[in-house]
From TrEMBL, chain A:
Reaction(s) catalysed (UniProt annotation): (1S,2R)-1-C-(indol-3-yl)glycerol 3-phosphate + L-serine = D-glyceraldehyde 3-phosphate + L-tryptophan + H2O
GO (cellular component) term, any one: cytoplasm
Domain Tryptophan synthase beta chain-like PALP: 65-389
InterPro entries membership: Trp_synth_b_CS, Trp_synth_beta, Trp_synth_beta/beta-like, TrpB-like_PALP, TrpB-like_PALP_sf
The family this protein is said to belong to: Belongs to the TrpB family.
Protein's name according to its UniProt entry: Tryptophan synthase beta chain
Entry keywords, A to Z: Amino-acid biosynthesis, Aromatic amino acid biosynthesis, Lyase, Pyridoxal phosphate, Tryptophan biosynthesis
Domain of life: Bacteria
Name of the gene this protein is made from: trpB
N6-(pyridoxal phosphate)lysine, modified sites: 99
Pfam families registered for this protein in UniProt: PALP
Assembly: Tetramer of two alpha and two beta chains.
Any one GO MF annotation of this record: tryptophan synthase activity
Function: The beta subunit is responsible for the synthesis of L-tryptophan from indole and L-serine.
Organism, as annotated: Rhizobium subbaraonis
Automatic annotation (TrEMBL), chain B:
Pathway the protein takes part in: Amino-acid biosynthesis; L-tryptophan biosynthesis; L-tryptophan from chorismate: step 5/5
Protein name in UniProt: Tryptophan synthase alpha chain
Gene that specifies this protein: trpA
PANTHER family linked: TRYPTOPHAN SYNTHASE ALPHA CHAIN, CHLOROPLASTIC, TRYPTOPHAN SYNTHASE, ALPHA CHAIN
Species per Swiss-Prot/TrEMBL record: Rhizobium subbaraonis
Transmembrane segments: none
HAMAP family listed in its UniProt record: Trp_synth_alpha
Annotated catalytic residues: 50 (proton acceptor), 61 (proton acceptor)
Protein family: Belongs to the TrpA family.
Length: 406, 279
């Protein structure tokens, strides 16, 4: 099957088998297949059900705080001396990031499916916190798998999850990061298929997750598109977002994909540089492979073993990327660029000082790309960036690197 | 279909007893020891060998097989070496069917065509690729079956009547019934439920049905074997290997000997299942 009945659109995917070009699909154990097919059926029903959409919109407005503001970063714009910079303020959402958009959507679906137990994986802990939050809100028990390394470097979020009543299970396999947490969550799901709903946090995994998570996150781009039209009377020249698994990025990109004059830029974690092993730039420095239920760009060796990667940002510390990003890259609709740890750190500090906003280290990567591009652009041009999360959770990591006592 | 697999199950049917199917991880704890284990399996009474291909992210496996894969990868095992292991084994055993078991990505990266060519040439009889459900048959299953390599599918308790025909559609060699939901190495479920599930599968296929997940002892093997065409033992063998290693994970004199003793005991279990079934 082709990508979409409308060959002129970049927004029609995936096809009925969950494919975006060669990417995506359903590469899971047989035990999970009936669940994934059921999930797809229920999701197809829900997305066309006005009642479901109404409840989603109501919780979006009153629980999450949507719409999130579009903010003109006047001082940063002046400082950089080029394009006008706008932030989509997803960091102002309840729980402090875009992750809640997806969690509210999926927990409504879990409830609809009669599931009584929620599991989730988390890297930075933002998705874990958002999952624990919606589980508390809907009165369901929640188990969050988190790599042991991340448990250590994201201590405030671990505490928040526990306060919210979730059980945080540290995963020591591998390097103890997001990849390992996802393996463990999949193992839990295979074991507890009857009652458990797996709340995947990013636009990756087996079909229908990449599509479903994107659709829940696309509210970001839909709002931003309307807001920028209202503020500027035109669309932005460039949309920029950080990409780990890529849910905040696909959320803001998707509504702009068919606006052919809008450039789309995803920012990958370049870590300590692309020459060595210590980065998470799956598209820039990886190759297509199959992991966690989908085919996509991965960091892997010549034998098809998955590498661990590295990023200062736990949320970007994943050796793969959502399949739709892989496809957007290959068809040339979006470009993906790496930003190094130190560039993200500088951006983090600059925004804090100049706009009074402490960004999470994930969007600090996107910001570093904005800082590179804006000065080279005209003052009449516009950059829209997804400020996907706030940096409270990262102050200990940053403090440690800057040698500050906390 | 490779003749070797069909011949083996036909012979066992004539003998009136279930097959003992033994799994181990290729390259655990090192190439030479692992090859010695492989060679010891049929001598100790294994009828079919499942040769594990290590993968960095074995999502459907429990801790025992995860660790075995890590030991193998640390010792330098690759897919090319796993195929070489089969080749080395075939130099002295032309009859025991070999099934490669693992995950898709290493095969995808090796190249499907190249993999199938090399697997055939190495004497491989079947493939179990955990993360390739029927929906993904075009990736590997269809080309493998076209070459005469069996594609063995897992059926599970979640595989309902509606789904079973789809699961069995391109399956060949045997059907591997995973007797519970969950990861490898979990506890053994009720044998009577297993018997019912095997009968349910047999309504849809004439292929032998082998049952795995949770079999650890000769007694388990006898109980499961009474209602199935084969008994698969994996984690127990892998655990036996693990328990024989030094603190640094290196081989000892007890490694191969321990596997031999365990498999001999399991083999006595399946051989007594013949009597149990006849009662």
């Amino acid at each position: 099957m082709n990508q979409s009945p409308n060959l002129n659109s970049f927004r029609g995917g995936p096809d009925e088998d969950g494919r975006f070009g060669i990417y995506g699909g359903r590469f899971v154990a047989e035990t999970l297949m009936p669940l994934i097919l059921e999930l797809q059926e229920k999701w197809d029903e829900a997305k066309d059900d006005p009642e479901f959409q109404k409840e989603l919109a109501s919780l979006g407005a009153h629980y999450i705080g949507r719409p999130s503001p579009l903010y003109f970063a006047e001082r940063l714009t002046e400082h950089l001396g080029g394009a006008k910079i706008y932030f989509k303020r997803e960091e102002l959402n309840h729980t402090g990031s875009h992750k809640i958009n997806n969690c509210i959507g999926q927990i409504l679906l879990a409830k609809r499916m009669g599931k009584t137990r929620i599991i989730a994986e988390t890297g930075a802990g933002q998705h874990g916190v958002a999952s624990a939050t919606v589980a508390a809100r809907f009165g369901l028990p929640c188990v969050v798998y988190m790599g042991a390394t991340d448990v250590e470097r994201q201590a405030p979020n671990v505490f928040r999850m526990k306060l919210l009543g979730a059980e945080v299970k540290p995963v020591t396999a591998g390097h103890g990061t997001l990849k390992d947490a996802m393996n463990e969550a999949l193992r839990d799901w295979v074991t507890n298929v009857e009652d458990t709903y797996y709340l995947i946090g990013t636009a990756a995994g087996p079909h229908p997750y990449p599509e479903m998570v994107r659709d829940f996150q696309a509210v970001i781009g839909r709002e931003a598109r309307e807001q920028i039209l209202e503020a500027e009377g035109r669309l932005p020249d460039v949309v920029i977002a950080a990409v780990g698994g890529g849910s905040n990025a696909i959320g803001i990109f998707h509504p702009f994909l068919d606006d052919k004059d809008v450039r789309i830029v995803g920012v990958e974690a370049g870590g300590k540089g692309l020459d060595g092993e210590e980065h998470c730039a799956s598209i820039t420095a990886g190759s297509p492979g199959v992991l966690h239920g989908n085919r996509t760009y991965l960091l892997q060796d010549g034998d098809g073993q998955i590498k661990e990667g590295h990023s200062i940002s736990a949320g970007l510390d994943y050796p793969g990327i959502g399949p739709e990003h892989s496809w957007l890259n290959d068809v040339g609709r979006a470009e993906y660029v790496p930003i190094m740890d130190h560039e993200a750190l500088e951006a983090f500090q600059l925004l804090t000082r100049i706009e009074g906003i402490i960004p999470a280290l994930e969007p600090a990567h996107a910001l570093a790309e904005v800082i590179k591009r804006a000065p080279k652009m005209g003052k009449d041009e516009i950059i829209l960036m997804n400020l996907s999360g706030r940096g409270d959770k990262d102050i200990f990591t940053v403090g440690k690197i800057l040698g500050m006592e906390l | 279909m490779t003749a070797r697999m069909d011949r083996r199950f036909a012979d066992l049917a004539a003998e009136g007893r279930p097959a003992l199917v033994t799994y181990f991880m290729g390259g655990d704890p090192d190439y030479a020891s692992s090859l010695a284990i492989m060679k010891a399996l049929p001598k100790a009474g294994s009828d079919v060998i499942e040769l594990g291909m290590p993968f960095s992210d074995p999502m459907a496996d429990g801790p025992a097989i995860q660790l075995a894969g890590q030991r193998a990868l640390r010792a330098g095992q690759t897919l090319a070496k796993t195929l070489q292991m089969a080749r080395d084994f075939r130099l002295e055993d032309a009859d025991t069917p070999i099934v490669l078991m693992g995950y898709y990505n290493p095969i995808y990266i090796y190249g499907v065509e190249r993999f199938l060519n090399d697997a055939l040439e190495a004497g491989i009889d079947g493939l179990i690729v955990v993360d390739l459900p029927p929906e993904m048959d075009d990736e590997l299953c269809v080309p493998a079956v076209a070459r005469g390599i069996n594609f063995i599918r897992l059926a599970t308790p979640t595989t309902d009547a509606k789904r079973l025909p789809r699961v069995l559609e391109n399956t060949s060699g045997f059907v591997y019934y995973v007797s519970m939901n969950g990861i490898t190495g979990s506890a053994l479920p009720d044998p009577s439920l297993i018997g019912a599930a095997v009968l349910r599968i047999k309504e849809h296929t004439t292929l032998p049905v082998c049952v795995g997940f949770g079999v650890k002892t000769a007694e388990h093997a006898r109980a499961i074997g009474a209602s199935a065409d084969g008994v698969v033992v994996g984690s127990a063998i892998v655990n036996q290997i693990a328990s024989s290693l030094t603190a640094n994970g290196t081989v000892t004199e007890a490694t191969v000997a321990g596997v031999e003793a365990l498999v001999r005991s399991l083999a006595s279990g399946v051989r007594s299942a013949k009597l149990a079934a006849a009662e």
